[in-house]
Amino acid sequence: MTTAVDTLAGALARWLPAQRWYAAKDREPREVLVERVTPLLDGDPALRHVLLLVDGERYQVLLGRRAALPAALAGAAIADTPAGVVYAATRDGELMTRLLGRLRAAPRGPVFEPEPGARVALDLPARVLPVEQSNTSLVLGDRYILKLFRRVLPGPHPDVELHRALRAAGTPHVARLLGALTVEVDGGRAALGVLQEFLPDARDGWALATADRTAFAPEAAALGRAVATVHGALADAFGPRNPAVPDLSDTADRLHRRFSALAGGIPELAPFEPALRAAFDRVRTAPGPFTLQRVHGDLHLGQALRSGGGWTIIDFEGEPGQPLAERNAPRHPLQDVATMLRSFDYAAHHGTADPDWARRVRDAFCDGYAGVLADPRDQPALLHALELDKAVYEVAYERANRPDWTAIPLGAVSRLLGAGS
């Protein structure tokens, strides 16, 4: 199958832009190179783990091969080869059921290592979750969830590092980490995925909020308390590395840089630029001092699960498009608060707009947060700037991924600037 994979560059270049997890969906790759192929299973079906270099960015894919694809896998096909049909193996429950066992026994290449004390069954039936974003998630026997990162970056991965720290601290608002998939690249280890406990009765906050806004409103305060509890645990866990700063000039500079990087080529944002930059500059005079810390980095309603009467926060990988150094950098915890508030606004404008609901759940969330840590509303200039920063990011994201949704964050930029003027 290695020879077949080497001939697949053209087919992969056509296939990649259609994948939700591929970062550059707005254009076909210029160069796709097969960097490494690790055989995991021979026969029919066969399974290979593949590292690709796509325009200099490294991705992992799992490729299956069958002499003929069953009808259920027809949509997973990538290319016909003389040896059979090569396809996206994450769509194949038979192959994914065997994945952990093959990685646990692999003598080289990618490996699966359970966490100390974790007893993991390696042959549970697998099913892929239907929604793919920057990663692919598989449910194993309704006991575990295996999240496969698609971009492969050497260095400490926040989704592994933060989960370990939070579980060690006994935080009740995170799922138990059971193991990690890693591979050696560029002279160091890189995370390929994480295995965690699966919460079969869970519903994510977005589904709850958009299904019944009235029923969700009382939950917002509990969610605020959960987020603040996680922030407090992260502050304690990484305390020796939390920098104390007299002001947030570096944060303001970062917001300006992000705007410059994101707004290029988005003419709809040009009229707002002076007001946006003024809001970022007001962060410099916010009353300090401040302590920065590790944060979630990409917190929204889809990253909060309601299960067993409480909230569980998931997906601590940060913004997947950012380098690991950026995602691992200490930030002000209001970054997570701001992104959650933006998520409330999204939910309020999904379908029939209800801005009054957004204000109610916003206040409830902040009330809950203030019951554990400092009230987010005590830093209005910082919170306002961080919400604007997230809204700008959302405009760029929606233009690239869901153009029909661009009006939601663009309208938010206008409303936020009006409210802050």
From TrEMBL:
Q: How does it assemble?
A: Monomer.
Protein name (Swiss-Prot/TrEMBL): Maltokinase
Q: In which pathway does it act?
A: Glycan biosynthesis; glycogen biosynthesis
Keywords in alphabetical order, please: ATP-binding, Carbohydrate metabolism, Glycogen biosynthesis, Glycogen metabolism, Kinase, Nucleotide-binding, Transferase
Gene Ontology biological process:
glycogen biosynthetic process
Recite the lineage of the species: Bacteria, Bacillati, Actinomycetota, Actinomycetes, Pseudonocardiales
Give its E.C. classification number: 2.7.1.175
Asked whether the keyword Nucleotide-binding is assigned, the reply is yes
Q: Where is the Maltokinase N-terminal cap domain?
A: 15-92
GO molecular function terms here? ATP binding; kinase activity
Question: Which reaction does this chain catalyze?
Answer: D-maltose + ATP = alpha-maltose 1-phosphate + ADP + H(+)
UniProt-listed InterPro entries: Kinase-like_dom_sf (IPR011009), Mak_N_cap (IPR040999)
Q: Which family does it belong to?
A: Belongs to the aminoglycoside phosphotransferase family.
